[in-house]
Amino acid sequence: MPDAFRYCFRFCCDPGFNDQVELPKLLGFCDEAHVDDVMVFVNVEEINTGHMDEAEQDIWLDLLERIKKPLDERGITLSVNHWHSLMHADLGKHFRANQSFRAMVDPYGNAAQLCVCPLDENWRAYIARIYARYAALAPDTVWVEDDFRYHNHDPLSWGGCFCDEHMRRFSARAGKTLTREEFVAGLLSPDEPSPYRQIWLNECRAGLEGAANAIEQAVHAVNPAVKIGLMSSVPYVHAAEGRDWKSLLSAFAGARNLPVSRIHLPAYQELVPSKYLQAFHMVSLVNRALLVPETLVYPELENYPYSRFSKSRAFTRFQLLSSLALNLSGMTIDLFDLNGRGIIEQDGYQQMLREVKPVLNAMQASGVFRNPRRGVCVLVDERASYHLHTKAGSKMEELYPEEFFWAGLLPAMGVPMYVGPKPEDAQGVCAVSGQYFRNLTTKQIEKLFAENFMLLSGDALDTLLSLGLGRLAGVQSTVLMAQNIGAYTFEQVTNGKIYTGVPNARASSVISGADALDVSYLPNARITEYSALYDSFRKRRASCEVVVENRVLLYPFGRFGSPQEIPPMLLNDVRQEILQDVLATSARMNAPMVENNPNLIPYAFAGDDAMYLYLVNGAMDAVDGIPLRFPETDGSYKVSVLPSRGEKIEFTIKIEQGRCTLPLKIASMESALLTMRKQ
Ligand SMILES: [Zn+2]
Question: Mapping DSSP to helix (H, G, I), strand (E, B) and coil, where does residue 82 land?
Answer without folding.
Answer: strand
